[in-house]
Design brief:
The chain is α+β, with helices and mostly antiparallel strands. It has helices spanning 15-32, 34-50, 54-61, 63-80; strands spanning 85-86, 101-107, 113-114, 121-128. The protein has 2 domains: 15-82, no CATH class; 85-142, no CATH class. Helix 1 (15-32) crosses helix 2 (34-50).
């Protein structure tokens, strides 16, 4: 029930209600304020730097939580399957070797899951060298 002094009150003073209020406020703030989002990210990285083994130890102390999290991550991966999950050394050998040339990287899908700082990109050919005898090659340094 809202207090008479605050007729537009939406949340009571109970800890659960206040926690939900703060959670929703933070969620909206992160969506609408890139500086706030960056500050939160920096604070999390700083905390992780000061507590390097925390999550490993937490998972070791809470095996049920870790198992549940692995199951939930598998479910999230299945939902993202069409987008793919990038990992180190994604290339499957010589099948995707590109010829020498100048390419432009454009982010193709920011929603895909990536590990080790990998981007999902689309390569756009800027210039290429079809063969040694073909003089149609234009080095990007010689362009005006």
């Amino acid at each position: 029930m809202p207090r008479a002094q605050a007729p537009r009150q939406s949340y009571c003073a109970q800890p659960d209600c206040q926690r939900e209020r703060r959670r929703l406020w933070q969620q909206a703030k992160r969506r609408g304020d890139p500086d706030y989002l960056d500050n939160q990210s920096q604070a999390q990285r700083a905390w992780a730097g000061r507590n390097p083994g925390y999550w490993r130890e937490y998972r070791a102390r809470h095996p049920d939580y870790a198992a549940q999290n692995r199951r939930q991550q598998k479910d999230r991966n299945v939902k993202r399957k069409p987008l793919g999950i990038a990992r180190m050394d994604v290339s499957d050998g010589d099948a995707h070797i590109l010829p020498d040339g100048v390419y432009e990287l454009r982010i193709a899908d920011a929603a895909a899951v990536a590990k080790m700082g990998v981007w999902t990109v689309r390569l756009v050919v800027v210039a290429w060298q079809p063969g040694e005898t073909d003089r149609a090659w234009v080095d990007c340094k010689e362009r005006t």
